[in-house]
Amino acid sequence: MKFSVEKKQISFGMDKVSGAVASKTIRPILSGVMFKNKDESTYELISTDLETYIKTEITVYNSSELESFVVEAVLLKEIVKNLPEDEIVFEKDGRNIFVKSGKATFKLPTMNPEEFPEFQNTNVDNEITFSLSVLELMLERSVFCANRDELMKHLNGLFWEYSGGYLRLVAADGFRMALAEEKITKEIESSFFLTLKSMTELLNTLKTSNSDELKVNFDDTKVSFKFDKTTLVTRIVDIEFPNYKGIIPKGFKTKIFVNRNEFIQSIRRSEITARLGSHSILMNINDNIIKLKSSSPEQGEADEDIFVKKEGEDLKISLNPKYLLESLRKVDSEEVELGFVGYNLPVQISPIDIEGYFYIVMPIRLIDE
Amino acid sequence: MKIKRLSQNVISKIAAGEVVTGGYSIVKELIENSIDAGSSKISIEIKNGGKEYIKVKDNGSGMSPDELKLAILPHTTSKIEKIKDLDSISTFGFRGEALHTITSVCRSKISSVEEGSEVGLSLELSGMNIQRESSFSGTSGTSIEIFDLLFNTPARRKFLKSSMMEGRMITEVVQRFSLCYPQIEFEYIKDGQKVYNFVKAVDRKERILRIFPILNEEDLIQIDDFGSKLSVKGYISLPRTSRGNRVGEMFFVNNRYVKQNSLNNALERGYGEMLNKGRFPIAILMIEIDPEQVDVNIHPQKLEVKFSNNAEINEFIKKAVRTSLKGSGGFNLDISHNTFNKTISTDELERLSDRKEVYPEKTFKADNSHYVNNQKTGDKYNGFQNSFSSIEMERKIFRPFKEEKINFTGTYDFIGVFGERYILIQFEKNLLIVDQHAAHERILYEKFKENKTIESQKLLLPLSIKMEDFELELAKDKINRINEIGFGIDFDKKDIIINAIPVIISERYTEETFREVIEELRFEGIEESEKIFKNIIETLACKNAIKTGDVLKEDQARELIDEIFEKNLLVCPHGRPIYMKITFKDLDRFFSR
Prior knowledge:
The structure holds two protein chains of two kinds. Chain A is an alpha+beta fold. Chain A has helices spanning 7-18, 73-82, 132-143, 196-206, 260-276, 321-330; strands at 2-6, 32-39, 42-48, 52-64, 69-72, 87-93, 96-101, 104-109, 128-131, 157-163, 166-172, 176-183, 190-195, 213-218, 222-227, 230-235, 254-259, 281-286, 289-296, 300-307, 309-312, 315-319, 335-340, 347-351, 357-361. By secondary structure, chain B is of the alpha+beta class. In chain B, the strands form five sheets. In chain B, strands 5-4-3-6-2-1-7-8 form an eight-stranded mixed β-sheet, with helices on one face.
C-alpha cells in the first residue's frame, strides 16, 4: 500500500479531527486516527472519544492498493507539521507505516483498523442549514457560562432548544446563565443537551472551516454538524436541563444603560481591592450615578463613580466582578443594558447592539438594612 | 472521717446516675418495660426535651396495686428469680432497678391496670415518697409520667444537655425501638406535635423509609442470612446513599439495641471500597444469636454486649453484607455516578463492574495509596477500615509540627509539580516540597478566618436537599449561624432549599459541605461556639481545597506558593506540615560527597 498527499491537506485534516482524539483513555485504539480508504483518491480521517466522532476527507494521489489503518494521532500530527517537503509519501509494510518527505523518514507502528469504533451518524432528518459564523458567535457567547466541573453533569454543557421558530443555546453554572438565540426557517420543536467537552471540540473544529454553510441534524441520541466535507457527531447527554425560563426575570425595577468599555475599565479597577478581600463590588445606583465600592480588611478600599442612564428606582446591589467582566468581554456592543429586580435577585445584562442574547448573574447576598 | 453505712435514699440517687443519664435513658427503660409487659401499642410523649415532661403509656399486662407498690422499691423484678436465670435472659430488664431509680430522681405519676382487672392504682410520687394514692378504672396497661427530671439532684440536672439535644436523643431512642419492633404500634409526640405514628407492620421497611427520608425504596437492600449459630436480618442502603456519620448504622442483638464498634467495622468492611472514605451506610441489622453466646450484663445501660465468639460474628456480618450488595448489582450505578470519566463505553462498564478488582484506576489508587502502610494483614479491605478511624482521629488529634521555621522572604525558583500532589521549589539553596492540598487548605482557612462574616453568593438554581427531621430542626434553630457562614437557606416541608453558598466554596461540594456544617452544628451547646466556628471553617477549607490528584498548571502552583510565602504559613489547619525542606547538605550526605 502506498500513497502521496500534500502536506497542507493532511495537516488541515489532522487539525480538524484531533479535537475528538481521546487523550486519557484505557482503550489505546482511541488515541489513534483512523485512515479509512473511500476511493482511489480519498481517505476519510476519523477520530473519536466514543462521545464525539469527527470525520473529514483528504485527497491523495499516486495511490496503489489502498487499505485502512490506524495510527497514533498526536504523534502523526506533530510529524506532518514538521516534515520538510510539500509532498508526503505513506507506505505500509506489514504492521508499520513509513512516512517520508524529502530526506526524512519516520517508521510508525499502526493499530488494527477493525478495532476502531464504527462512525456513528444521525439517521433522522431534522436537518437545518445555518450560518457557520453565526453559530460560532452564539457558541462563544454562551458556552463560557457552562459549569466546568465534569461531575456536575446537568450543567457541564450546552442546552439546545428548537422552539417557536428559534434555535436557543443556553448554558449555566450555579451562579449565572447565558442565552443566545437565532431564527431558523424550519418548524422544529425539540431540545437536547451536549457536553461542554464536545462543544469545545465543535468550536475548535468550526474555526478550521473555509465555508460558511453548516448543516445541523439530530436524532434521539446524536447530533451531527456538517461543513466543508467534515462531519462532527456527538452524543446527546441524557439529563434534564433545569427550567431556565423560570430564572429569566419577568420585569425590572431598575434599568441602567452604560458604555461597555468604560464599565469594564471601572470594574477592573474596583476588582483589584475586591480580589484580595471580599470577592464583591458594591454598586450603589443613585439617580444617574453608580457608585462602585470594593474593600478588603487589610488591603484598603476603592471608590469610583460611573455616569449612566437610569430608569426606575435607586438600588444597592453587590456583585462578583469576575462574573461581570467575563460576560461584558464576550459582547461587542458599545452600550449594555443592566436590568435589576432587587438586591438579592438576578441581574440581566443585555448588549444593546446584539439581538437575541442576554446574560443573567446572581448577586452576592446583601443582608437587609 | 468515719465510715458509715449510706442511707437507702443516698444509695438510690447514686445508682440512678448509672441508669438515669438523661431523659433518653428513662424513655429507654420505660419502653423496655412496656415491651417486656407484652404491649402491642406504646405511646411516648415528651416536652422540652423531656426535662419538663415524659410520658410512656402502654397496653401491656399491667401491674396489680400490690405489685405496683413493690415495683418502686429497689431490686424488685418479675423477670428473674434465681441467679441461674441470668444465663438465659430474654427480657430487657433483669436488675430490678429501673423503676425505682427513675422515680427516686423526679416527680412522677404511675398508673397501672392489671390484665383481667378493670380497676387500677395510680400513685403520685415525689422522689421516693408516695404523695397520693387513688384508684381508677380503665383497660389493662401502664402509664408512667415523669415531671421535673432530676429535680432533687440539681448537680446532675446541670449536666443535662440542651433541650434540643436531649429531645433528639429521645427521638433516636424511639426510632430504634420502632425499627426493632415493627409489630408494635408506636406513637411519638414531641412538644405537642405528632412526630411518628407507626401502625403495626410485618416488615420494618416502611419505618426505615420514614425515619431516614434521604432513602428511596430502591436504595434499600434486604439482608437475610443465617449460619449455624446466628442469623442476620435487616436492611442496608446501596453505597450511593451514604451519610457523613455513623448514626444510620444500627445493630440489634436479640432485639436489643447495642453500640459496638466491632459491628460497625464489620459492616463497613462489608462495603469495602464501594463507599468513599468518610461516608457511612444506613443499615438496620437484627442479629439473632443463642442467648448463651452473648453476655448483656457488662454495661449498666446494656448498650454493650460481649460475644463469646466476636471474630466469627464480625466475619459473618461482613460476608452477609458483601453478598447482599453483590447480589443487588446496585453498586454498578454508584460507579457511573461518581467516579467514571464519561469516555468509558457501556460494555466497558459492565466488564468493570463484574470484577471490582479493575475499578477505575483513579479512585482506586488515590484511596488506597494513603493507607497502604496500615494494611498489616492480607485482608485487602483492611486499609479502608483503618482509613475511617484515621479520619476520626484527624479531627481530634492536633499533631504539633516541630520543624524549624523558614522565614519566607525573597524569591524562589519554581521547579515543577510532582505526582499531582507536591510542588517543588528551590528556596535559599534548599529544596522545598510543598503539599498542594495542605497548602491550599491553609490558604482558604486563613481567608475564611480573616473575613469575619463570609460573603454569600446567591445561587441561580437553588438546590433542594432532603434532611432528617432532627437536622431540619437544627437548621431552623441555627439559622443565624448558617447565614453567618455564608449559606442561605429556605425550608420547604421536609426539604432544605439552599439558595446561597459561601463565596469561596465550589459548587460541586455544596451539598456535602452543607451537610458537614449541620453535622458540626450539632455540637454547638456542647462545645464552645468559637471552636465550632473554627471547625466549620476548617471543614469548608478542607472540602474546597485542591485535592491530591488535581492537576495544577504552573501558574496556579506559583500562585499557591506566593500566598504561602506572603502569609508565612507552615502547617495546614489540621496541624499537618505544608512543606518539607531538603538542604544541599542532606543531599550531599546521601550521595557521600
